[in-house]
Amino acid sequence: MSGDLMIYIIAGLAFVVIAGLGFALAGDGGGNVAKRAKQVAAGTNRVGTAKRDVAHQRKRQTQQMLTTLREREEQRRKSLLPKDMKSKIAQAGLSIDVNVFYAISAVLGVVCAVLAYLSGADGVTIQGIELKSRALVVALAGFVGAFGLPRFALGVMTKGRHKKMTNQFADGIDIIVRGVKSGLPLAECLRIIANEVAEPLKSEFVSLTDNLAMGTSMDRALQQFYRRVPLPEVNFFVIVLTIQAKSGGNLSEALGNLSAVIRSRRMMREKVSALSQEAKASAFIIGALPFAVMTMVYLTTPDYMMKLFTTPTGHMILLMGAGMMATGIMVMRKMINFDI
Q: pTM to 2 decimals?
C-alpha cells in the first residue's frame, strides 16, 4: 500500500470521526435548544397567565369598589331626602303650616264624601254579590279627597318647581364661574345669585346664603340645600363644592364643566321628550278611543249602551275593561318615560 493511499484513508477516517462528533454534538444541542425553548415558552405562558390573573383581579376589585361607592352615595342621598310633610310642602314652594295643610286635606275629604253621598251612588253589584255599599263609596270618596288629592296636587307643584329650577341652575352656576374668575369669593357669588336670579332658584340660594351668614359650615349648608331640593343637578353642585373645599383646585374650571354637563343633560332630556311625543300622542289616542266610541254609540243607540250600566254582566265588562285600560296605560307610560 502506497503512502499516498494511506494518507487518503487516514484523512477519510478522520473526516468520518469529526462528522460523527459534530452530528452528535449538533443533535444534542438541538435537543437542548428545543428544551430551552419549551421552558421559555412555558415561563412566558405562566407570566402571561399571571399578568392576566392580576389584571382580572384588579378589574374585579375596581368594579367592587365602584359598586360600593355607588351604594354608599345612594344611601347618602336617600338619607338626605326629606320624609316629613313640612319638607315636602317647602319643596312645593308653599309657605303654609303643616296643620293648615292637614286642615285643608280634611275639608277636601269632607267635601268629596258629601258629594259622593249626594250623588246617590249605592255601589256596584256583580252576579248578585254586592262589592260596594253606599257607606263604603262615601268613605272611599272621603279617603281620596283627604289623602289622595292634596298629595297629588303637592306632587304636581313640586315637579313643576323642580323643572323650573333645573332650567335655571346652569345659569346660576355660570354666575359663580364668572364671579370666581373675576376674583370674588364663593360666598359673594352665592349672594349675587340670591339677589339676581328669578324664583324659584332665588329663594333656595337666599336660604343657602343665610345659613352661611349665620355661621353654618359650607358642607352642612350644602347638605341642607340638597335636602330642600333633591335634584341630581344640585347633588353634582354639592359634590363639586364639597371636594373643592376639602382638597382645593380650580373651582371655576370645575363649575364650568358642571355647567356644560347640566346643559347637555337638559338638551338630552328635551331631545328625548321630542322623540317621545309621537308615542305620547299615540297613547293618548288609544286611551281616548274607547270613551269616544262609547259616546258615539250612546248618542245613536242609548239603550244598547245602557246595558253596560244596568246589568250585572255589563258591570263585569266595565270592570274588566277598566282593569285592562289601566294596565295598558301603565305599560305605555313606562315605555315613553325616561329618567335622564
A: 0.62
The predicted model gives 199-216 an average pLDDT of 87
Q: How far apart are CA 160 and CA 123, in angstroms?
A: 37
Domain ranges for the chain: 1-67, 117-275, 277-336
- Alpha-carbon gap, residue 272 to 265, rounded angstroms: 10
Cell of 71: 351604594
The H or E element containing residue 261 is helix 251-275
Third-level CATH fold of 117-275: Receptor-associated Protein (1.20.81)
Residues 233 and 241: their CA atoms lie apart, in Å, by 13
135 CB neighbour count, 10 Å cutoff? 11
How many Å apart are CA 234 and CA 194, to the nearest integer? 15
The neighbouring-strand residues paired with 180 are none
Phi-psi region of 129 (alpha: psi -120 to 50; beta: other; left: phi over 0): beta
Task: Give the pLDDT confidence of 8-53 residue by residue, as tens digits.
Answer: 676 666 666 666 665 555 554 445 555 665 665 565 566 566 667 7
Helix (H) or strand (E) segment spanning residue 165: helix 149-181
Q: SS in 3 state form for 176-220?
A: HHHHHHCCCCHHHHHHHHHHHCCCCHHHHHHHHHHHHHCCCCHHH
Q: Is 231 left (phi over 0), alpha (psi -120 to 50) or beta?
A: beta
Give the separation between CA 193 and CA 237, rounded to whole angstroms: 14
The length of the chain, given as a count of residues: 340
For 245-259, the pLDDT digits (tens) are 777 778 888 888 888
